[in-house]
């Protein structure tokens, strides 16, 4: 992999890895077990630019490219998938739409504090009756003379418990179906903005995923992102990039599991030899390493296509599908290689196993990804 | 105005494969013990203002080491890079660095680390200072600006030595002096996209070829091989009390307690 990346990209990887090893790894187990959000570390990450990776310098970001972005996400996720989730969702599906579809005033207002990590962003699409079928959302934003009256019940909001700036997908035209959906930016603290209980999740527990409910929130008309009716377009554009990030998260988790598995297989003796000398184990390791590498290359390809201005939607969907399924397989094998100890919280692989599972669900399930990819391949 | 600081840094071999030294950019990184030295320079500049120049000698692939220093906040970088410089021992390295530092004059402060993660001689700083006729404090663990100079502390043989240092001066800094700052993403972006690293060759240094590189080296490494370290495990027998007694006897007999 090394010769593949420029010196600059390797410097980025080295610096992020060093930070994560020192600041995140030692607390990763605790923030997972206690489902706590480590503000202290998040503030440091903000100062280092992790919350504005691709934001232009003029708006307070680091001005890097998509490959740089996935390098950062992989490294953070390798230490803590919950924090990796926080950073990828913030950068991709929260900040990117503001940059791509926001007016100059909107960008000036929201992006700089988000890029510095002083504020945290969230993407609020899913509702109790609208998951894979995003067009079924019921949230409404009724335009009055000088504001939108927003009512919404959003669930499974990543960063929900800490988010300051929320992209709320809502219906501005109840009769226009898919074309009636718009994105309204709602800030925490707006009267009627309520953060629900945190989800007690299986994995990525350091992330305060929660519901967010809006009760008759009066939101300025100036908070409409893009134009009315553009909601789904904005959402899909954001998810194309978000998926590369989730794929990178999956690779990071898998890499962590592979590393632990290799270490353990060389240390654990059974039948007089390290278990890595048993062919069954060494073949598992070979498959794991190969799949992680393949997944990473797919993620890089999607990122490079985007950086070159080429169409990357299909590559991003394939990378997300393959990386998330690989992550599940590799973490499962890492548990297997650890035997009983792999099933104990004394070792980190059970956490990786739980963390990997969700990458096949959010930002589009594997089934939805297969549908999308098949449509592309078959030309339907 | 402020002060002009020069920091000498090294790119080291991070992961020699099977004991073989492979010089490619893949296996190199900024000597980790130089980071606290850069941190000292950055903190002094924060108080006194001025410019920091990072100076390194090595083949072209080492240039990124200077970018990394610039990502931390250093203003400019100079890489001494010439085939004639290859194979240098510490003396030939010091000759080249001293010539470059003279060319960078005027300067107030020259900083070095005390060690390198790949070859731990600790000689380059002191030798270079001698060549420059520069007063030097070695092994400093604390450096604080005061009036027109610095207060520098080092520990020696169980004593704490405290020096008042005026400029120009040289210091070698212990790697335990501080926790160097993390490199931010914007810093890396600027260091690689906007700040430039100058390459100087032998002609720029005004040195004859016999004072540098292998030709200028007073020493020569004959062979390099991995040392075998033998570890063995022994089980003590008897009751718990007997085992503990035996352990205490052994540890005290070997001078460990
Ligand atoms: C930890 C976590 C964080 C999340 N963060 C966010 C967030 O920040 N913002 C946000 O908006 N959402 C978020 N989500 C929601 C996530 O995107 C949805 O859970 C996901 O899109 C699936 O929707 P659903 O849960 O309603 O499942 P459903 O859509 O009900 O799917 C149930 C099952 O049916 C399958 N299925 C559905 N439709 C089809 C079909 N047409 N063909 C074949 N199979 C189908 C699915 O693949 C799945 O297996 C998060 C979820 C989790 C768990």
Tell me about this structure.
The complex is a heterodimer of chains A (380) and B (257). Chain A is built from 10 helices and 10 strands. A 4-stranded mixed sheet of chain A has the order 1-4-5-8, covered by helices on one side. In chain A, strands 2-3-7-6 form a 4-stranded antiparallel sheet, with no helix packed on it. A two-stranded antiparallel ribbon of chain A has the order 9-10. In chain A, helix 1 packs parallel to helix 3 and helix 6 (231-267) packs antiparallel against helix 7 (279-307). Chain A has 3 domains: 2-119, Butyryl-Coa Dehydrogenase, subunit A, domain 1, CATH 1.10.540.10; 122-228, Butyryl-CoA Dehydrogenase, subunit A, domain 2, CATH 2.40.110.10; 232-378, Butyryl-CoA Dehydrogenase, subunit A, domain 3 (Up-down Bundle), CATH 1.20.140.10. Chain A has helices at residues 7-33, 39-47, 66-79, 81-101, 104-115, 231-267, 279-307, 313-338, 349-357, 366-378, and strands at 121-124, 140-143, 147-157, 165-171, 181-187, 193-198, 210-220, 224-225, 269-270, 273-274. The longest helix of chain A has 37 residues, at 231-267. Helix content of chain A is 52%, strand content 15%. In chain B, strand 7 and strand 8 form a beta hairpin. In chain B, helix 2 (63-72) crosses helix 5 (185-193) and helix 3 crosses helix 4. The radius of gyration of chain B is 22 Å and the shape is globular. The model of chain B has no long low-confidence stretch (mean pLDDT 90). Classes of the chains: A alpha+beta (380), B alpha/beta (257). The A-B interface holds A 2-3, 7-8, 10-12, 14-15, 18-19, 44, 47-50, 53, 57, 61-64, 68, 72 and B 25-26, 29, 63-64, 67-68, 71, 182-186, 188-189, 192-193. Bound molecules: flavin-adenine dinucleotide.
